[in-house]
Every structure is written in C-alpha cells, then in structure tokens.
Amino acid sequence: MAMTKLDLTGLKCPLPVLKTRKALKALIAGDRLEVHCTDPLSVIDIPNLIRETGDRVEIIERAEQRIVFMIEKADGASA
Length: 79
What we know:
Blueprint: E1 3-8, H1 15-25, E2 32-37, H2 42-53, E3 56-62, E4 67-72
C-alpha cells in the first residue's frame, strides 16, 4: 500500500478533479492519495468523482483556505 500526495493548491475548477482522476489511474487497490486543494468547489467535485470511480474518500481537513482529501483506491474501481 503506497501513499501519494497531490498538491493542487491554487488550481481552480475543473483542474483539481481532472488531476485527481489522472493520479487515481496510476494507483493500485489499497493505495492512498492525499489531495490538497484550495478551490471551494472541490468539496463537491472530488466526492462526485469518487462516487463515479467507486473508490473511498474522506475529507480530513477543511479550513477556510485549504481542503485535504484522503482517497483510498478500491478493488475493481474504474475511472
């Protein structure tokens, strides 16, 4: 199980979700992706992406200027 960090601070919609999707494609089941965003729309867009892919997501930090997601790649998830 590998951990990858993705810093998307400063990027605006749709880039955070597009870059998250690309990073997820490189992972295998059980790997984790930690995504750092500043775009307020990412709290909607990234969970919607994860519903599509079948992976698991948790918002581990939500401050005024920063949102951190922890995503776990699931078995058989497809993007």
